[in-house]
Amino acid sequence: MNLAAVFARAGVRVKASFRESSWVIGETVFPFLSMSAFVLVYRGLHAPKEYEGFVVLGGAMIAYWNNVIWGMASQFFWEREQGQLQLYLITPVSRMSILLGMALGGIAMTTTRAVAILVGGMLLFHVELPLSRALPAFGLFLLTLGAAYSLGMILSSLFLLWGREVWHTATILQEPVYLFSGFYFPVSAMGAVVAILGSILPVTLGLDGIRQIFYGKAAHGLLPLGWIPPIQIALTAIFLTIASVMLRYMENLGKHEGRLTMRGD
Amino acid sequence: MKRLLQVLRASAWLGWQVEANWADPLLFLIYAVAKPLATTSILYYMVKVVSHGSATAETFRYIFIGNTFFIYVTEVLIGISWTVFRDREDYETLKYIYVSPVRLMPYLLGRAFTRVGTATVGVLVALLFGRLALGLPIGVSTTPWLLVLAAVVLGLVGVLWLGIILAGTSLVVARHSMNLNEGLSGLFFLLCGAVFPLDVLPPAARAISLALPFTYWLELLRRMLTGRDFAHSLATMSDGDLWRVIALATAGLCAAAFLWFGWCERIARNRGLIDWKTNY
């Protein structure tokens, strides 16, 4: 039954994401525009070509991070606003299976956006991504997504009880995270202490590792590449455990305080 | 006029309550300045990592000024059109505003003042951050500070009218189209050369860039704050020329906003869209 819930929730997300054409355009073309501005910053600075590649890879990863924030963490908030949260809660399935469905559907939805950014970056800006190294990069990318969406499940439990601060918190998890995760520059540029603190976010090390795979020493990696996959696996396990506990705790707290059916506006 | 001022003041106060009454002022301030500070820092590190190349402190100052003042465009432009969606669909209050003795356009302008306020805080904090944390000189000995203020206000008026045009569009389109409004802001960020010299744009994009008033606005601010011109494409234009372009564009946007918003408002009323709900 839990597996069926995963597929059902993922299916809704996949279908919904392609139903509204303005949404598809909005989530592919417009993030591409912002990313292009940062590519042109490096071009204006006459930076080495691989820096433009850093931005394109970062732009693709931003699509997933934004999906974690707006499509995972905030989702129970939106469901509550629309009066659907209680329907989830009375179903005989695990909350984690619903969130896993959201994650898988969100990954499918976001992949179209990320591919558009990667292909657009390669075609329009002639960014070089050595395809011979694509397989290990893809492997690390999958591990990174696992850890990032597990973190999204933890955030989802926190956002479950919040009101209007959800909006602002989600916003605060965008640009500041783009900074501390080094989406547009090698994270090691901020110094070891800040960069290691930023590595609590799985996207930081994931992006650092993927850049190392593609660009080698030019990526100015933070940690040795071999360390990153085990760290991502460990982060996934830790985040999933915490998410499971947090979801139960926050749901019970919400029931006690009567906040599961309240409108946040 | 007195009535107009009353409406502006009341809707600005309402906008402030909607935006900020859920948090204490310090927490709200942190939320308000996090984005501009983070974006400034991103650009700082981007310049820093290539500083062995041609990137200099002067280059970063160029990027910094453009990025900082562009906060107004992002915040205010998106803020006004978002107000329509929030009032119409989340709070379901747009219909009540509509039947009250208040015109919709002044109401939306008043609501936008809150965004102008938060954007101003963001700009000031970013400028202070640039000066104190990054050691950037803000202005030179010849900087005409009153004219800088006047240029900021003039550009802001243009942004407000463009925001009204987008708000008019928002009245007749579904909520999903919010993406388009945000995208327009991203498009301006790219095409106005907010964070890179116009000269790196492909020729076709540069032609579009030169048709946008914000391109001239940012160049004027950069010239006044650094004492030198930056975009080679605008090198033949004097400061007076830039002022004239911005003033004419603002007047044009004002006229277009009145016509477009009035038309959209009529369409929305005729089609019963004032209480439309599309957040399904």
How would you characterize the overall build of this protein?
The complex is a heterodimer of chains A (265) and B (280). Chain A starts with a helix and ends in an 8-residue tail after the last helix. Helices cover 76% and strands 0% of the residues of chain A. Chain A is globular, with a radius of gyration of 19 Å. With 265 residues, chain A is an all-alpha fold. In chain A, α1 (2-19) runs parallel beside α6 (95-124), α7 (134-159) runs antiparallel to α11 (202-215) and α7 (134-159) runs parallel beside α12. Chain A has one domain (2-257). By secondary structure, chain B is mainly alpha-helical. Chain B has one domain. Helices cover 75% and strands 0% of the residues of chain B. Chain B contains ten helices and no strands. The radius of gyration of chain B is 20 Å and the shape is globular. Chain B starts with a helix and ends in a 10-residue tail after the last helix. The model of chain B has no long low-confidence stretch (mean pLDDT 89). Chains A and B meet through α2, α8 and α9 of A and α2, α3 and α7 of B.
User: Can you give the helix content of chain B as a percent range?
Assistant: over 70%
The shape of chain B, in one word, is globular
The quaternary organization reads as: heterodimer
SSE pattern of chain B: HHHHHHHHHH
User: Could you give the distance between the termini of chain A?
Assistant: 34 Å
How many structural domains of chain B? 1
Radius of gyration of chain B: 20 Å
Strand content of chain A: under 5%
- Give me the strand/helix succession of chain A: HHHHHHHHHHHH
**Portion in strands of chain B:** under 5%
Structural class of chain B: mainly alpha
Note the total helix count of chain A: 12
How many beta strands in the DSSP annotation of chain A? 0
